[in-house]
Batch of 2 targets.
Target 1
Amino acid sequence: MLQTLALIQRSAEDPQRVAALARRQERELRGWLAGGDSREQGGRLAGALESAAAEVEAAAGGTVEVVAVGDCPLDEPARAVLGAAREAMLNAAKFAGQAPVSVYAELSDERIAVFVRDRGAGFDPATVPPGRRGVRESIVGRMRRAGGSATVRALPGGGTEVEIAIDRGSRP
Amino acid sequence: MSDASGPVPQVVIVDDHDLFRAGVRASLGPRVEVVAESGDVEGAVCVIEELEPDVVLLDVHMPGGGGEEVIRRLGASRPAVRFLALSVSDAAEDVIALIRAGARGYVTKTISGPELADAVCRVRDGDAVFSPRLAGFVLDAFAGEIPAEQVDPELDLLTPREREVLQHIARGYMYKEIAAQLGISAKTVEAHVSAVLRKLQLSSRHELTRWAVHRRLIEE
């Protein structure tokens, strides 16, 4: 924390860096205030998604806001979702510009659904940058192999939403 | 999303961090008029009683009781004043307690200036303002099962449509986008959100009650 404050002072000329530092510190402090609860340590998906968002913010800049309803253990299907969601977040953060990336997760023992949306400039599917298409296929492919699904939608108002889902219903 | 109509709303900012108040004031721009700021509960109550602003931007956590204490001290004495919670606080129980005390919504401090100005105007017009995080809290609070004989369907359950609207808010959709997605008008989206706010304030659902008790809200 003190170190971050020092960094902020030294980076005062660089507002984006200051924002990123403050943001990271906020997240850490918040995690600490929450008492390092089960979400952080107990191998649960909600906490893992938060951590992934923090990593993506550190790597790609910008803001990734996670809202999770419910929780579930970090087992195999949950890990598949986590990997795909992290990739979707990273991709979204690159295209989001200044607007935050929204991540919404509905987690239960029966089913996991995660939505990752950015507000990047709207795009025409025919002219998707090749890099972006590759990432897209990798997210879809990853989920298909895991027995789930991933859908990518271009939103009319601009931006993209990736919906990642898997049923856990048949598991004990 | 309704654009500001009518006169510029008068706003009081209540937050114990000087720097943050200055930042909010600067980011709000000309669409609202900041008539006063206060850094503590006592000062906030005085200034709100004196100035009767349209909207009070209220921090959840402050020395001396926080936003909830401000609303409770004012009681019903200033019914025209509307409150919007603005905080970094992540604790669901604190945010829900403030809503149950009477705030018309909750936005996180990462909100952009123009969005905040828009939220202020909507609250002034009597609408409810839900951020993605608040939508998540509400979905969580209404998710648990409660014994059927205790359910008041008017207050204790969300309709499928209300749930759908909240899920879209949590996904980061704006009201206008939700309306387009669900094939309803923006006014109808607004009506659903206001209905949810009412349930949030009046439901005696187990989870909400537990939170309220936890925060010593219910003492009688």
Note: The longest helix of chain B spans residues 186-202.
Target 2
Amino acid sequence: MRNVTRRWAAALGTVLVVLVAAACGSSSSSSGGSSGGSSNQGSSTSTSTAPTAGPGLTSATAPSGARQSGGTVYYTEGAGATPNYIFPMTSAQVCGTQNISQFNAILYRPLFWYGNDYKPTIDYSYSIGQQPTFSDNNQTVTIKLNPWKWSNGETVTSRDVMFWINLYKADPGKNYCGYVPGYFPDNVTSVDAPNAQTVVLHLNKSYNPEWFTYNELSQIYPIPLAWDRTSLSQPAPTSDNGHLPDATKSGAENVYKFLDAQSKDLGTWASSPLWSVVDGPFKLQSFTTTGQVTLVPNTDYSGTPKPTISKFVELPFTSDAAIFNEIRSGGPSAITIGNLPSAYAPQTSTVEGEGYVLNRAASYSFNYFPFNLNNPKVGPIFMQLYFRQAFQHLIDQQGWIHAFLHDTAIPTYGPVPVSPESPLASVNASTNPYTFSTQSAATILSSHGWKVAPNGTTTCEHPGTAATECGAGIASGEGISFNIDYQSGVAAIESEMNDLAAQAKRVGININLTTHPFTTVIGTAIACQPSQADCAWTAENWGAGWIYAPDFLPTGESLFGNGAVANYESYADPQANQLIGATITGPAAGEAQALSNYAQYIEQQVPVVFGPTSIGSYQGDAGTLVAKNLGGYAANAFGYMLPEDWYFTK
Amino acid sequence: MTGFIIRRLGEAIVVVLGVTIITFVLLHLLPGSLARDILGNRASPQAIAAFNKENGLNTPVWNQYWLFLDKLLHGNLGYSFQYNRSVDSLLASELPRDLVLGGLSLIFSLAIAIPIGVAQAVRRNGALDYAGTGVSFVLYSMPQYAIALLLIQFLAISFHVFPAEAPQSASAIGMLEHPSGLVLPVAALTLVTYALFSRYMRSSAIDTLAQDYIRTARAKGLPERLVLTRHLLRNSLIAVVTLVGLSIPTILTGTLIIEQVFNYPGAGLEYFNAALRNDYEVMLGITVLVGVVTVLGNLLADIGYAILDPRIRY
């Protein structure tokens, strides 16, 4: 009996310790005010409200203390997202924020700079190129360059721009992630350099100047002639002697291959004679194989302002938990700028109280997931406009944002981002044309020949192609059942999809849910023909939608045009093609109207399912934490950074 | 013994070969395509075709496996498209760090678990035994994640005693130069491992205490200290040696949670990330490595048995 009592005492003690530990654990990751479910389970209609996220820091932070010179800014890279490519002609393989906006754009200044002060517009004061002029019925573009210098003393010239275009054209795989077939540089028939500070592009037809400036010129980085070689043993050219390798297509291809290989040799970056030639405000001091980047000011930087801080360190992290723990723990290398993972959004006030300002900026993006309109089985249903509109009524965006996304997302009803607002794309994208309403969805289906069976299987009662019938390719008695495959491991997406399946069931639509890793989901969603084996997918939700970069104008040539590179759903609509074309080739003064027409049509057409767009530099962030003693920091609409603006205060 | 080792090494080659075949086939049964995964959602069909051709992915699977084996025999574990690095260099930079983490925690956990396990066995059903059992159960039942977060919350965030993350040096020696950063990750892993070892040690020691030779040693008047160290400890260690042998692969790749929470990039996390990103060659490289290490771990355990118990012959 004595032993039994002791055992019970030991067990009880164990349980108590576990409970205490669990309580302590939960206190560090409390779920905040989340209701844990969709806020609207019924068929009621929710009203449209203003975006719950934002605004970003539309003007630079300006702490009240005395401005200091020097100091080290510590920045959190995304979890598992460390730079792995330094050559700014970033291939699709390595096309990520960690390589472009947070790394090589700081070392090598693009021809034009976009997105300052949370505006998705160009900023010539930070650009090498002056405002381009369009002539010859917008078929000729003339760009004058500001007199910037490379860190090796050479001048940034028009030849450096031509060097970039030569490599871009020569790359046989067209690897650069900004490439859209048929557009830049395919649409450039020739390039002239009448003098060292002027570049002239001759185009194959007339293009809208704003579109060309935001989606084509945005892809150009001047690169130094010191890179125009095919081995490190060759001397670095300092001027064009007329025989540089990039002058011929085969020579340019060899230079591209050489630079690509050098860029993949991560261990040599900091000591490379190539990558040390920069025109940006900072240069690379060191790079560790774990992904830690240390940048120091480029003392030969030509732009203004000149860097004030003495060092900018980008720190690698293995997980969101590690990021959050490091932000909270402080220490000698306390995080100065940190991306707050959305899972920790409920603890925002705690972190802000520890010396941070939260920048709730969104990236210029929109979230969606596609149906496969060419699926041999349910494609005919997805092809029906009324079905897509009815389905969009099942998306409870406000409920999802509040319940699953901790109010750190923006309702999204079309392809033009709502936040940050663009003067070039002033569409009324804040009004939901398909408010959440299962009743509306049921009514639409009923009026198109379907017998709606709540919590059962809705079936086609009136097959045919008349306005009140189910539509072409849909047989009598056919039900609506399909699969949605979504990214695994993200609680918010899982909750959203479960809610969507539940709401769909209320109108007799049976959704089977499956999960896969991000890369599998996005890799499965491909444009296809019904006869192809890989056309069996029905809907794929990778959770990150589309980010506009380096095509900074939200036009649809990559997304919804017939045969576009990211038209995974195989949407083909002549009017959409015509409206997209109008945004590309229309007159200069008509761009805003053309964009508005395009956006409204796509909103009405819902070729894809629109869902809430998360804020933050990385998808899924709750925002960016900025130390209260850091001045000069402002949000950039495209996630770029200007560390030359930053300074510490006492 | 030499013959045994040679025979076991021969078996190891067959085992590792089998592991590579199974892993290779399973990886190629996964949905999606590597080119799509790597090049992303903006890749043109031309870029995908060029990628497949460049990497031999447009050839039959058996041919791809043969290419993999050929590279493996030349010491080339492949290339990580996600990291833009060779798998060899990836593992060369991460395995030493894993050895530091896993090795230190193994040493500390054994150093704590063995004496406590023996003490619990000797004082069976006493206060010390119950306390030790309670602590072991708590630690064993708690997820690694919870232990790690508790340590960070109290010792890094609340009281700022130790850093919340491991040293970020790229080399193992560099990490050892910042021991304060190693305290929490090593402690978290030690606590979990200790719980396992101490239970086995206690159980094994209890069994050994019931053996005739212990009774004989005591009857002959041998001091208790010598009974415990010479007779009990050595004979009780066989079970623990088995566990240590089996845990050697875990040292290299089984610290995923600790690596995640303490910002400690290592091979375990690498494997997990590679699986998420369909980075086949990283997965294959680590699988081959773990296969080799598992066989070697078992071999070392077998050798350990012979050293601990002279009656064991191979």
Note: Chain B has a mean pLDDT of 87.
